[in-house]
Amino acid sequence: MHFNLFLHDTGHHEASWRLPGSDPYANLSLEAHQHLARVAEDAKFDSVFLADSPVLWSDPGRRPSGKLEPTVLLAALAVTTRRIGLIATASTSYNEPYNLARRFASLDHLSGGRAGWNIVTTAGDAAARNFGLDDQPLHRSRYERADEFLQVATKLWDSWADDAVVADKAAGVHARHDRVRGIEHRGPWFRVDGPLNLPRSPQAHPLLVQAGSSEDGKEFAARWAEAVFTAQPTLAESQAFYADIKRRAVAAGRDPDHVVVLPGIVPVIGDTEREARELDAELDRLIAPRYALAQLAQTLRVDPAVLDLDAPLPADLPGEDEIEGAKSRYTLIVDWARRDNLTVRQLIGKLGGGRGHRTFAGTPLQIADTIQHYFDNGAADGFNIMPAVLPSGIEAFAAKVVPLLQERGLFRTEYDGTTLREHYGLPRPADRFALV
Amino acid sequence: MHFNLFLHDTGHHEASWRLPGSDPYANLSLEAHQHLARVAEDAKFDSVFLADSPVLWSDPGRRPSGKLEPTVLLAALAVTTRRIGLIATASTSYNEPYNLARRFASLDHLSGGRAGWNIVTTAGDAAARNFGLDDQPLHRSRYERADEFLQVATKLWDSWADDAVVADKAAGVHARHDRVRGIEHRGPWFRVDGPLNLPRSPQAHPLLVQAGSSEDGKEFAARWAEAVFTAQPTLAESQAFYADIKRRAVAAGRDPDHVVVLPGIVPVIGDTEREARELDAELDRLIAPRYALAQLAQTLRVDPAVLDLDAPLPADLPGEDEIEGAKSRYTLIVDWARRDNLTVRQLIGKLGGGRGHRTFAGTPLQIADTIQHYFDNGAADGFNIMPAVLPSGIEAFAAKVVPLLQERGLFRTEYDGTTLREHYGLPRPADRFALV
């Protein structure tokens, strides 16, 4: 079983920063992030992860909205950790492949083989407008670019043979020039000569992670992803998603064990059930509906005025086909509200807590049991742990939930390997020079 | 007097990696960089600096050619240093302003106000071919883009008022939305809505550094740069450059003290003159002429076959007007070779050592005297220290040259401030919201 800690300043619940014990400046604090990464590493987590988008995500009043750029922040965290993997989100729509391939190779070198890349195509017009566009590119076109971006990036990472550097002082030859070569990529989106200006890194390629669950997203995951983050609100949906991804990986000619599926869960931990439920309720009470309502309206592509806090969602919403943004997120929200017959206020409470991920409020034993139940029933290879409140949520999870899973033989008590790929049981990509 | 350490794995001399004591893998080593930064910080240097270009710089045989991306590497160095400034080179031609403004703001937040940006437009067709172009953009057009890039970046850094974040838990207001605003930039090169997704950083803007010495470069420096790195082979040329930059800054309406001029010097330190000269000669003996000849031919835009190692440069070389790359570097090399009537072999030796910067081989006392002489005679506000061999060159400089300058009252014995701007005596940019 694998665990990733999804880093998120004071926690994944949007009102977590308002709790008396929360540091509302944690989003910009190196020390706060170092503490989270250390707690996760002491608990032998596989990795920590940072989400990202090159845009101000929401009204800056709502919660801490300043976000340190992930590759920069994780480079700093590499220094005060030794074994845990470091997964940064970066956009294929708003970066150049040479620059991004190089930053991830740099992080992999610096961290001794612990870099991971959560590949996103970045939904939303607001982000597009920070990069010279009027509107976001079409969903399909973002994925076409992402596919070619990955072709370029992997060629660049493979542009030095593993044995290129010889450092022969006597002969005055640092690297063998016949073991470093240009990539001469020519495609509809990119023309890149290469080679990369970095030797092949400890992992060769960073661990490739993906989280989109649309049809395009799942096809992309089947081709490229080695780990998949996903939001699935029920066991049945998790099982269906898990089977679907593994099937698509096989259809793409890959070993299904080389695509690790990690549903997100939002634990709200109390020493008693009552304590957990009280914390959960306190958090929901602290949500300011004005922000949440505006964001829900934006996701649904409707005017906020048509949303009544104490009524269900309107009947006439756009279909997923009309959504060019985060398609799977849209469908998840609409289906959930309709299935459970939620009012807008109830829906906002649930979204504010886990943003569509499964929230568990309970005792450590209840949470360990649920995790094991998912794991034993074909719903997950591990979990993306998204504590509602940080750092207390990961401290409690590490101290009280992880030992239960270790006692049951489900989770490691020590790291076996040194690289992120080793933690997830994934192979190091072959040297393309050796294949010739 | 100010000192910057120009980080460069085993040293600035191209053959330094071949010395018996050099670690030929230092270019990829976090520990090696941490050591250099710590030695410089213990000696109270203002800053450390990393050059960069998004391309493989030279034949990978010649010297360690893998380069970790500077913002990522300096984020890691921020963790193991406390006071020294961290200056990263990044290209305005091959980045998007939103991404780069954000990475520097992130580094400034993470380091507590120690980030600096060496702004480059990136010469060379090889780099252009990693970004979808056939050839490098024209020199003038690169500087036009750079100018607008800086307009966008500074607007983004100023898109949050200093007092925007209130973190009012009781009211449920994290930041005041009327103190965060879009920039709505519309120009010939960029359209960027903003705001940045980060509050204003400790220094507000990273220290802006520039190093091009062409006419376009000096005009750009006069408008934007707060520190200028420059290669000047003689005292007279340094004085002329110094006066020129200060004059241009005044003409641009700026305080000349707010543009700090830092010529590069390459110290080769021995306890005796003879020891220094022997190290210098040993380094030159280790240069492999095949690589240096190819690079010289490329800089001069001539066929390598027309260069005879034991003859002067050919008479019919292109004029600076025809050079679209590093214009000032081209002129410096040609003038130098002709003035000193150097053979190609002699020129290669001098370039391999200091790449056009002033090389001083001597005792600590001789080096301290030369530095003082430049400083006292209007040639420099400080120096970009580029040891021929690292780490030994900076260890010797810190242990033997710095104390002499401290005894003379020329260099600090303790840091007064905490930010990079404070070290260089430069103001923090005003809050644009306060100006309204």
TrEMBL record, chains A, B:
Q: Out of the domains of life, which is the source?
A: Bacteria
List the Gene Ontology MF annotations in alphabetical order.
Answer: monooxygenase activity
Q: Which UniProt keywords apply?
A: Flavoprotein, FMN, Monooxygenase, Oxidoreductase
Q: Note the InterPro entries from the entry.
A: Diverse_substr_monoxygenases, Luciferase-like_dom, Luciferase-like_sf, NTA_MOA
Q: Which SUPFAM superfamilies match?
A: Bacterial luciferase-like
* Residue ranges of coiled coil: none
What is an example of a Pfam family matching this protein?
Bac_luciferase
Q: Does the keyword Transcription apply?
A: no
Gene3D superfamilies for this protein: Luciferase-like domain
Q: Which residues form the Luciferase-like domain?
A: 21-379
Question: Belongs to which family?
Answer: Belongs to the NtaA/SnaA/DszA monooxygenase family.
**Which PANTHER family does the UniProt record give?**
ALKANESULFONATE MONOOXYGENASE-RELATED, C2H2 FINGER DOMAIN TRANSCRIPTION FACTOR (EUROFUNG)-RELATED
Q: Which NCBIfam families match?
A: FMN_nitrolo
- Name it: Monooxygenase
Name of encoding gene = ssuD_4
